[in-house]
Amino acid sequence: MPQWLCNQLMSAFLKKDRRQIRLLNECWYYYRAKPEKLKESAGTNP
């Protein structure tokens, strides 16, 4: 996980900002899933 995202999550948890936590969580899953999709598409196309 990138350091900037860790810092943002820590700040959101300390502030108990649920909206921000949800947004950052979605960003993390999008960020994490993006390289996997690229790997899959690279493997299927010769």
Automatic annotation (TrEMBL):
InterPro entries named in the record: CmpA (IPR047764)
Cross-referenced Pfam families: spore_CmpA
Top-level taxon of the source organism: Bacteria
Full protein name: Cortex morphogenetic protein CmpA
UniProt source species: Cohnella soli
Gene this protein is translated from: cmpA
